[in-house]
Write a structure and sequence with these properties.
This protein has helices at residues 29-47, 52-66, 109-119, 127-136, 145-148, 150-153, 217-223, 225-235, 240-253, and strands at residues 13-17, 85-91, 96-103, 124-126, 165-170, 176-182, 203-205, 209-215, 258-264, 269-273, 280-283, 289-292. It has a single domain (13-292), classed as (Glycosyl)asparaginase (Glutamine Phosphoribosylpyrophosphate, subunit 1, domain 1, 4-Layer Sandwich). Helix 8 (225-235) crosses helix 9. The protein is built from 9 helices and 12 strands. The chain binds aspartic acid (ASP). Residues 19-21, 70, 163-164, 182, 184-185, 194-196, 202, 214-215, 217 line the site of aspartic acid.
């Protein structure tokens, strides 16, 4: 009698970041514990067959609502005192993408970005138009900005959360996806938009790799950093980690600081930074979880 060997378990992987901004004399134990818990949830979802796109959106939404990072509830106001938020999602299958920039008044910018992708022929909606769209689609609104955002109530600047958030995943079907969300850089000018919602700069997913960036967005835009990771894999034949380091070196050569997380179609993962640290958690292929600031 011939025995059929059991089908190989499909490889899944997940990387999360909670931002490149870290202060040397502040503990990030709470944020790292939160990232580790989320990574455990994401690992279970992927093992149960969840879609990479759904998982990265779920991870980023949880980080937005937590108030622990500079995204969603943890966002800081711009110089005009307004909370303008950016977010993007990208699905490696077919390179579908959605993003919002300078969005005001909604709990989960990543949900708005997903709705742009799912319900419009467009990739990026900005400002008042993005808010109008989010309202029309019934997304949950912030009723009282001054009471909601953490920075409005923070007793001192050290209590203000730091860090954009992002997630990249490979699911059991082989699909790759990325999502990123941010309140932007501290003290930004009214109307400033960073790399996060710019597809190719701060967020990217295709058939080779899914990438999410954090740091000084202007430099990541000028380096087209997220798409550059996949381009290095495609044209230079780099492995994922070398591609991430290469893209980060380019950001650094321009004078920029930050970090990049990525996963590829084989399940290889990377989390690199040239900043003093980057809050992150990794579900390695095989399921082991590592998390930390360094
Ligand atoms: N990259 C984000 C931006 O420039 C900020 C951050 O990652 O902290 O908007």
């Amino acid at each position: 009698m011939t025995r059929t060997s059991p089908a190989a378990t499909p490889v899944t992987a997940l990387v999360l970041h909670g931002g490149a901004g870290v202060l040397a004399d502040r503990s990030y134990d709470v944020e790292i514990a939160h990232l580790r818990n989320l990574a455990e949830e994401g690992r279970a979802a992927l093992a149960a067959g969840a879609d990479a796109l759904d998982v990265v959106c779920d991870m980023v939404r949880a980080m937005e609502i937590s108030g622990l990072y500079v995204a969603g509830k943890g966002s800081a106001p711009n110089r005009a005192g307004r909370y303008e938020l950016d977010a993007a999602v990208m699905d490696g299958r077919g390179r579908r993408a959605g993003a919002v920039s300078a969005l005001e008044g909604f709990l989960s910018p990543v949900d708005a970005a997903r709705a742009v992708m799912d319900h419009t022929p467009h990739v990026l909606l900005a400002g008042a138009g993005a808010a109008h769209f989010a309202r029309e689609h019934g997304l949950a609104a912030v009723r009282d900005p001054d009471g909601y955002y953490m920075s409005a109530a923070a007793p001192d600047s050290r209590a203000i959360p730091t860090g954009t958030v992002g997630a990249v995943a490979l699911d059991a079907s082989g699909a790759l996806a990325a999502a990123t969300s941010t309140g932007g850089t501290l003290n930004k000018v009214w109307g400033r938009v960073g790399d996060t919602p710019i597809i190719g700069s701060g967020t990217w997913a295709d058939e080779r790799a899914a990438v999410s960036c954090t740091g000084q967005g202007e430099f990541f835009m000028r380096a087209n950093a997220a798409a550059d990771v996949s381009a290095r894999v495609r044209y230079a034949g780099s492995d994922l980690d070398a591609a991430v380091q290469g893209a980060l070196d380019d950001v650094g050569a321009l004078g920029g600081e930050g970090g990049i997380i990525a996963v590829d179609a084989s399940g290889a993962v990377s989390a690199r930074y040239n900043s003093p640290g980057m809050k992150h958690a990794i579900v390695h292929p095989g399921g082991r979880i590592t998390a930390g600031v360094k």
